[in-house]
Design goal:
single chain, alpha+beta, Glutaredoxin, 6 helices
Length: about 170
């Protein structure tokens, strides 16, 4: 019986270490400057399904028409297999509320594996505790950074020069 207690305690300790060690995602906090709750830190698609974020996200996602003709000029296999993305946004920011749902719809159209994308939500000071956002030199949001083989290929900052699809295509050539 003494061995069973030790095994049980070891399993319990392991579970506690694993559950506490991982960074929590889809966290919210009140931002004084925004005067509202915001998503903060690392998020995934489920974060945008939470109220009140789903209201603006779903509306823009549903109405956006993806430019498939531009996407067809990309090397889709190379993009899907080799390009990683980091996106930094603020749920309080009008540009983020417009561009982020559109970007997700484009990625859905391409069948991009969202596991290859890191999404970080920042506060109005463009910081997020527990993330590496301070190392990314973020001046404006949203900022979408494309990487291949750990090398930065380029960025879309705040809003695209032409369109998300055209800018993406020219960055990942």
């Amino acid at each position: 019986m003494d061995i069973m207690k030790k095994v049980s305690l070891a399993i319990l300790a392991f579970i506690l270490v694993v559950s506490c060690g991982g960074q929590q995602i889809n966290q919210t906090e009140f931002d004084e400057k925004a005067g509202d709750n915001i998503l903060i830190g690392q998020v995934d698609m489920e974060g945008f399904e939470l109220a009140p974020f789903n209201e603006w996200f779903d509306e823009e996602f549903d109405v956006y028409q993806v430019d498939d003709s531009t996407l067809s000029t990309m090397d889709k296999d190379d993009f899907l297999d080799n390009v990683r993305i980091t996106m930094v946004l603020g749920t309080w920011c009008g540009d983020s509320r417009r561009e982020v749902p559109r970007f997700y719809k484009i990625l859905e159209s391409l069948e991009y594996d969202l596991e290859n994308m890191t999404v970080i939500c920042v506060n109005t000071s463009k910081t997020a505790e527990g993330t590496n956002v301070d190392q990314l030199n973020i001046q404006k949001v949203p900022t979408i950074i494309y990487y291949k083989d750990e090398i930065e290929l380029g960025r879309i900052i705040e809003s695209p020069q032409e369109s998300l699809e055209k800018d993406m295509s020219s960055i990942v050539k």
